[in-house]
Amino acid sequence: MQAKKKIVASEGTPVRMLGRNEPCWCGSGRKYKSCHAAFDERILDFKRQGHIVPDREQIKTKEQIEGIRVSGLRNIAILDEVASKIRAGMSTQEIDDIVSAKTKELGGISATLGYEGFPKSVCTSINEQVCHGIPSEHDILKDGDIVNVDVTTIYEGFYSDSSRTFLIGNVDPEKKKLAQVAKECMEEGIRAVKPWTFLGDMGNAVNEYAKKYGYSIVREIGGHGVGIGFHEEPWVSYVSRPGEEMLMVPGMVFTIEPMVNMGRCDVYVDEENDWTVYTDDGKPSAQWEVTVAVTEEGAEILAY
Ligand code: MF3
Ligand code: CO
Ligand code: CO
Predict the structure, then answer these.
(1) What is the atom index within ligand 1 of the atom nearest the CA of 111?
(2) Where are the beta strands (DSSP E) in 168-272?
(3) Taking the CB of residue 206, how many other CB atoms lie within 10 A of it?
(4) Ligand 1 atom closest to the CA of 275, numbered from 1
(5) Distance CA 211, CA 264 (A)
(6) What is the mean pLDDT of residues 258-283?
(7) Taking Cα atoms as reference points, which of 124, 157, 158 lies closest to residue 141?
């Protein structure tokens, strides 16, 4: 999509075993045997034990991660711009205007605009709206609201995706706590990103953290691989079990974006616009999202 210099290591090409003296798939220019051969073997070991493992599509090269990092810096700047301007009395359409202008100024493209028919450059989800709220001039932020602003940017073909929940004016302590714990859930997820452990370990850590406060996490909507496309494999749950789901290996890039509900986890989709997700019980929901890369040590945050 709009890629000036889209770098794709393996798009469309089936993964095949490389000869040990062939150049490595990662683009390092080194021989496979002295580059990623042992790494691939380690992944295969997990696969033989019955685990879900990433294929090469889900493992980004250093060059691709750099592209996502650069895109992520734009995504961060756009959210910073929103943070400096958001206030009571503003419509969510004005947030869309801010995002759209800043994205353009930075040479990026909004990934949400036109995505599967989504009509705006950002998602704005207020209070009991869980996600995918559509900006509108009729929706005015008022004192005491919490609003999630979710921005996804394409820059030189690379996607980055992050969101924050903003407090509007004086928010009551219960809702403030929810917004704070949603952020901490995301941070808990980041801490649980470790190579050669499982997405289920991370998802479980997030869920356990939310449960401590009596909150619940939405099950049907999760995170996703991101970078070369908007929503890539794997799908990332935050209510998963330790030792289950996909193995995390260095080079994988995905989002951590648990949706944390004050009440029950059940949600429904607005029948009229077919997008906006609400809590079933009408209680508030909060969300923070980051794009992370798995490194040898843990996680690198690429968009916040
Ligand atoms: N940014 C959202 C996410 O975190 C996806 C929004 S898709 C849209 O995955 F079409 F609603 F914009
Ligand atoms: Co997002
Ligand atoms: Co996302």
Answers:
(1) 12
(2) 216-217, 223-225, 232-236, 253-256, 259-261, 267-269
(3) 29
(4) 11
(5) 11
(6) 98
(7) 124
